[in-house]
């Protein structure tokens, strides 16, 4: 589609009709939870969604918003409470990162999430992507939010490649910026609309081109759907990995009401060397606190 504004219209119209009603996407005018700080709700959702699908995030997000409706509320809790409430979302260091960000927001910004990209990015654990997403979705700041779905849609639609490169390139960021509509509000909606198109239609393994609003303009389809010839994204296995063992150890600590003796951790995995290595890494990451007499707990 050579006409960029026609492309904008097509995808924005599709989004208006097809978007999922996800709680963290509600506009300020339609925000139904007056006690919940909306920018905080957006920030928490963005961190949770980075490596976990919507269906698993949504219930945990609701529970976090019920318990910690503001950054100050989470900052007043123990980091271990954040890890416990993280449940089984995976990559639990994200819970500690959110706690650290909440603490910085409470201590350095009077409990108010900064409404500019520079200060957002200076928060602990908040990288370029999360800052751009919170800037766009919470504050309407015009910035390109380039997640894995956006990268895939733009690779196919504009570049004509089935998959983007394994990691984000400067050219991709430039392209995403060039594609942004001029208006701030349209730009923010465009980001989430392209994400949604990638999540619902232009899926990684099975793109559903027959129901895609930009099928006629898609460079990859017009080129005859050439097979991907670049490096493949590595699929991380789970069974038997340290990630699985760490998850099992944390599960025991999350379910306990107090410190746990080593004997209770020893039964979760038969390989003692791997188990000890994983426990040591959890301690090093700050997710587990060792106590006297070989007892362990979530960080207080
Ligand atoms: S036509 Fe197919 S490959 Fe192209 S953007 Fe749409 S879903 Fe993706």
UniProtKB/TrEMBL annotation:
Signal peptide extent: none
BP-aspect Gene Ontology terms: base-excision repair; mismatch repair
Upper taxonomic lineage: Bacteria, Bacillati, Actinomycetota, Actinomycetes, Micrococcales
Domain of life assignment: Bacteria
Protein name, as recorded: Adenine DNA glycosylase
PANTHER family linked to this entry: ADENINE DNA GLYCOSYLASE
Top-rank EC class of the record's enzyme: hydrolase
A Pfam family: HHH
Cofactor: [4Fe-4S] cluster
Molecular-function GO terms, alphabetical: 4 iron, 4 sulfur cluster binding; 8-oxo-7,8-dihydroguanine DNA N-glycosylase activity; adenine/guanine mispair binding; metal ion binding; oxidized purine DNA binding; purine-specific mismatch base pair DNA N-glycosylase activity
The species this protein was found in: Flexivirga aerilata
Family matches, as PROSITE patterns: ENDONUCLEASE_III_2
EC number: 3.2.2.31
Similarity comment: Belongs to the Nth/MutY family.
Keywords attached to this entry: 4Fe-4S, DNA damage, DNA repair, Glycosidase, Hydrolase, Iron, Iron-sulfur, Metal-binding
SMART domains named among the record's database cross-references: ENDO3c, FES
HhH-GPD domain residues: 48-200
Gene3D superfamilies in alphabetical order: Helix-hairpin-Helix base-excision DNA repair enzymes (C-terminal), Hypothetical protein, domain 2
Catalytic activity: Hydrolyzes free adenine bases from 7,8-dihydro-8-oxoguanine:adenine mismatched double-stranded DNA, leaving an apurinic site
């Amino acid at each position: 589609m050579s006409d960029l504004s026609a492309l904008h219209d097509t995808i924005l119209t599709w989004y208006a009709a097809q978007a999922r009603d996800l709680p963290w996407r509600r506009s300020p005018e339609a925000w139904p939870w007056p006690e919940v700080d909306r920018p905080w709700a957006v920030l928490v959702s963005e961190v949770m969604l980075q490596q976990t699908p919507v269906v698993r995030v949504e219930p945990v997000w609701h529970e976090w918003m019920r318990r910690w409706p503001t950054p100050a509320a989470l900052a007043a809790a123990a980091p271990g409470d954040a890890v416990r409430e993280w449940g089984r979302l995976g990559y639990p260091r994200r819970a500690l990162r959110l706690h650290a960000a909440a603490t910085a927001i409470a201590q350095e910004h009077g409990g108010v999430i900064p409404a500019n990209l520079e200060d957002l990015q200076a928060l602990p654990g908040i990288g370029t992507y999360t800052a751009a997403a919170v800037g766009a979705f919470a504050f309407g700041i015009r910035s390109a939010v380039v997640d894995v779905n956006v990268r895939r849609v733009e690779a196919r639609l504009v570049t004509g490649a089935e998959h983007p490169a394994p990691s984000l390139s400067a050219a991709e960021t430039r392209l995403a910026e060039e594609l942004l509509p001029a208006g701030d509000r349209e730009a923010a909606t465009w980001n989430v609309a392209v994400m949604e198109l990638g999540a619902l239609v232009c899926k990684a393994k099975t793109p559903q081109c027959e129901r895609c609003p930009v099928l006629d303009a898609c460079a990859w389809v017009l080129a005859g759907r050439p097979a991907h010839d670049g490096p493949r994204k590595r699929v991380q296995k789970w069974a038997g990995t340290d990630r699985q063992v760490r998850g099992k150890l944390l599960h025991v600590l999350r379910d306990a009401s107090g410190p746990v003796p080593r004997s209770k951790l020893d039964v979760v995995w038969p390989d003692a060397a791997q188990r000890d290595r994983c426990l040591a890494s959890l301690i090093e990451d700050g997710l587990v606190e060792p106590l006297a007499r070989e007892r362990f707990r979530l960080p207080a």
